[in-house]
Design brief:
Blueprint lengths: L7 H16 L18 E5 L3 E7 L8 E6 L2 E8 L18 E8 L10 E5 L2 E7 L15
Antiparallel strand pairs: 1-2, 2-7, 3-4, 4-5, 6-7
């Protein structure tokens, strides 16, 4: 007779493996019934004169991107379209997001709306938001009578 070391988690792992075969990965269970959401990664940097936002959106055509400034929020919307012949292919893994996304970034301060500009290069959208110049308080002299 052979001795087998008891592992209380072996049964749990075995059950999880069986469930994964039936249902797919447990990580995807939360997304059943609703489409997976995509949120592109971004960096927000503040320099002396502006706020610079860099958003990674590789594989998305610049015509499919839009920027909106609403109050103190920068809203980035876009869509990565499905390739036409993908339905004919047999995939072993399909992880790249396809569909629409929306990302809302609260800005840390007020910017000059008329001077905002954006550039798209090598899959990175770079938005420059110039700061509103600070209004310096005017010192009022007090006259003594």
């Amino acid at each position: 007779m052979r001795l087998v070391k008891y592992d209380p988690f072996r049964e749990i792992q075995s059950m999880r493996d069986q469930m994964n075969q039936w249902l797919g990965s447990f990580d995807d269970l939360a997304e059943w019934g609703s489409p997976k959401m995509f949120s592109p990664t971004c960096d927000v940097e503040e320099t002396e004169n502006e706020i610079v936002v860099k958003i990674d959106v590789p594989g998305i055509d610049e015509k499919e991107l839009s920027l909106t400034l609403s109050g103190d929020n920068l809203i980035i919307k876009g869509e990565r379209k499905t390739e036409k012949d993908e339905k004919k292919k047999h995939f072993h893994r399909l992880e790249r997001f396809q569909g629409t996304f929306e990302r809302v970034l609260p800005l840390p301060l007020t910017v000059e709306k008329e001077k905002i500009n954006a550039e798209y290069q090598k899959g990175v959208l770079e938005v420059h938001l110039p700061k509103v110049p600070e209004v310096k308080p005017k010192e009022i002299p007090i006259k003594v009578k």
